[in-house]
Amino acid sequence: MSQSAPVLSVKNLRLTVKRLGLEVVAGVSFAVYPGETVALLGESGAGKSTLFKAILQLLNNSQWDQEGEILFGSTQVNGLSPKELEQVRGPQVRCIFQEPALSLNPSLLIDRQLSEAVLAVEPGLNSTEVEARIDLALTEAGLSPSLVKGKYPAEVSGGQRQRVGIAMSLCAKAALLLADEPSNSLDSVTVTGLVESLLKLKAQGRIQSLLIVTHDLGVLRALGCERVLFMHQGELFEVGNIQEVLSNPRHPKLAEIVGQIKEIRALEKTVQKAKVLEDQEPLVSAKGVSFAYAKKGLWKKPGVPTLKDVEFQLAPGQFVGLVGNSGSGKSTLVKLLTRELEDYGGDLKFHGKSLVEHGLRKNRSFFFRNLQTIFQEPADTFDPSQTLGENLTECFTALGLGSEDILSIFDQLLGRLLLDKRMLAERPRNLSGGQKQRFALARAFGVKPLLLLADEPFNNLDLIAQQRLVELMLERKADPLHPLSCILVSHDIGLVSRICDQVWVVDQGRIVESGTVEEVLDRPKEAATLRLIHAAKALGSFG
Amino acid sequence: MALFFYLKPNPVPPLSDRPHRPQLNRKGFFHPLVLLCWVGFLPFVFSLFSPLPGHGFKLGLVILAMTGLGYLVFQVKRNLLWAVLLVLPIYGFTCLGYADPDFYLQAAASSGFERVLGPSSELWLGSDYEGRDILATLVLGGKNAYTVGLYCCLTALALGIPFGLGLTSNSPWIKNPSFWVVQFYEIVPQIFFVLIVLGVYNFWAAESAGERLTESYSLPIAGIAIGLSSLPAIARIIENRILLLKSERFVLALESSNVSRTKVLLYNLLWKNCTAEILIQTTFLFGSALLLESALSFAFEIGFGDLGTGGYQSWGKLLAEARRSILFGENGWIVLPPIVATLLSIMGVNALGQRLAQSSSGSEES
């Protein structure tokens, strides 16, 4: 492969923050040859995103010093004028950004935006050809074109918007496709679709090579990466192909990461599935719960119902996985349970009392103390202008804890979560994302809740935080006095099957299937369940 | 040697600790100059009790206090230094005006000097057409301008914060009335509103006093009227900021930890996350109040509004009196002192606001 000329070659690239003199990327050299799929691994803060921005020449030159060469084919891109860069960025290199749904302009029609993307690369096309391109790209991204054309981004659902964002990156030819954590915010069915269409595009030769940043090993395995690059503290290492990385990591830091993944898997194996006792009083029970978001307007009229006739019972000490595609109503159910949304129909009880009763002032402290939530992006859940100590203390005080209780919580938990007490005096912006996530865990587990609601907790957590989360969850579950129950919201049925006792499959506002993990996985009855199982298998998340 | 010790710059933290804020050198608090900074507040006390007589003593004290304030800023926030140095003269003017009102009133009232003398060692800025010391009138004008600005800012804050919070309310019974009030002041032109308020006030005051008033207008009333009409500036910035923050995840996290909504709104959102913005906006407001006040007194002096002349000294009034030099075509320099004083103080206040804005946004990024 090395005989042909590389699509992208980076030679001895150094990127320095001018103000701090901090070297983020330190002398990196690598090349991507035609036909290759190259993966870039690394912890957060290793300089991956900065390297990506430098390749696309999106770094602000007044803040960054760039040394070295970035070559696309034979053109050096660093130092080119914006006009000349236009010739490179469209036809030579395209990018799928972290949140494809956010890369759409909210006030332009979707097909207008897609045609802009096509015409930027191939200005000579006439309108029927452009139309054909758009239809093809949308179909490949898993959307029927008639569904989204002629609409504004706000008029389609979140999942559809993500697919439109992906279609925008796929609709024209490119020598190199960059993908920056594309699977991060997508549900597993969409991710498998994305992987399939990427493989197809490469097979048809519409993109030559692919450079992908991700920490999702399932995606890498499914794409069949030939080479893996590993980045650590601004330096780059070649570490062979994906099988080698998993079996025999060469770099000590990489070995540590792979070891952590294996440790989490091993920890998950120790899960003992709890039996449902028939005579136990349920911790949470729902009967005929329905909910519809009110439409805004002069007269408030109920919109399309998001939840219809939901019924379930959750016994203490049970872990339940709530799975379903994005837009199926999982998050709405969680928001009902946390009392973030009110005005639901039906009967929803927690600990023997209805949620309306829990909303009374005298009951609120008990309710919130026993029902803790881990939010989707736990690192963002701290007041930026208060120190972390003040943040946690404010929450604990509101839950009725005295200062001695709070101090003992800090003593017990912070060490276990690999946090230092001195960090309590820091503002959130001075800590890394992983540290903030672990502080969020401390907040959730500090008060010994009876029910933990975790909304996609593994999506954005780094590995240490994931490991501690699983450890704490299992430990609290075994606690005889305060057995922890958990509702784990996820689109990854593989993950749920490893940790949870039961699986509830949500589709279009209903719980269509529920039962123990074995029952649901071995004898799936509904199409929605089958789709999820298929996607999880394709990404290898059962392993 | 001791001075060298105090002036030693803070040690540069190693690279790994860079995101941390540079710590204030605590010893700096006890530096003699910094201690003198607190003395800067004493002129206000002197204006009430006056323990020591003598103009020169008070002048020296004010200058020392200004130096101390400059040094404190140099220690705490170095990037504000130039902006603060621009603002310091107006602070000094005010201190002097309050510390020694009799001295300056006498100097400004006595018309014993010859008319339109150039600057000399006795009269630093010369004398005007009435034969008064221009420096003394400048000091009194600065004091009055500062007073109006202070009243304006206090009124705008006291009313702008509740109305701004009202705008973010979900209940239409709170939101709509706040909206009407804020929009009313957005629509009405500022200077007309202030003129009308002052006219009505003077009419009422003359009626109750039973005679035609010779005083031009009341400083606190002018300040409050300007503050009322610039209430939207504060209210809107609070509305924007809080609506933006309300959708942040940490609000949700706090509310699901049983922190009451009122506390989240008033403590976490308003006090912890809006103070910088409000402070910055207030400095700009102060600058615009200075400008409006001098425009107002200029207007009254040239006979606009039929409220009479005399009474308070003001930079606008000085300028209006000096404008005849342009008609006569001689002694044109006499218009310069009030113009330069207004220009410098407004520029200084605006530079201070801009620097505050920069430093607060910069600290959030890093």
TrEMBL record, chain A:
GO molecular function, one term: ATP hydrolysis activity
Swiss-Prot/TrEMBL GO biological process terms: transmembrane transport
Chain ranges passing through the membrane: none
SUPFAM superfamilies documented for this protein: P-loop containing nucleoside triphosphate hydrolases (SSF52540)
InterPro entries named in the record: AAA+_ATPase, ABC_transp_ATP-bind, ABC_transporter-like_ATP-bd, ABC_transporter-like_CS, P-loop_NTPase
Residue intervals of the ABC transporter domain: 8-258, 284-533
Pfam families: ABC_tran
Coiled coil stretches, renumbered: none
Keywords tagged on the record: ATP-binding, Nucleotide-binding, Transport
PROSITE patterns in alphabetical order: ABC_TRANSPORTER_1, ABC_TRANSPORTER_2
Family as reported in the entry's similarity comment: Belongs to the ABC transporter superfamily.
Protein name from the UniProt record: ABC transporter domain-containing protein
Species of provenance: Candidatus Lambdaproteobacteria bacterium RIFOXYD2_FULL_56_26
UniProtKB/TrEMBL annotation, chain B:
Keywords: Cell membrane, Membrane, Transmembrane, Transmembrane helix, Transport
Cellular component, GO, one term: plasma membrane
One BP annotation, GO: transmembrane transport
Subcellular location: Cell membrane
Coiled-coil positions: none
Residues annotated as transmembrane: 28-49, 55-73, 80-99, 148-167, 179-205, 217-238, 333-353
Keyword Iron: no
Membrane topology per record: Multi-pass membrane protein
InterPro entries to which the protein is assigned, alphabetical: BP-dependent_transpt_permease, MetI-like, MetI-like_sf
Statement: the UniProt record of this protein carries the keyword Transport: yes
Signal sequence annotation: none
Major localization class: membrane
Official protein name in the record: ABC transmembrane type-1 domain-containing protein
Species of the source: Candidatus Lambdaproteobacteria bacterium RIFOXYD2_FULL_56_26
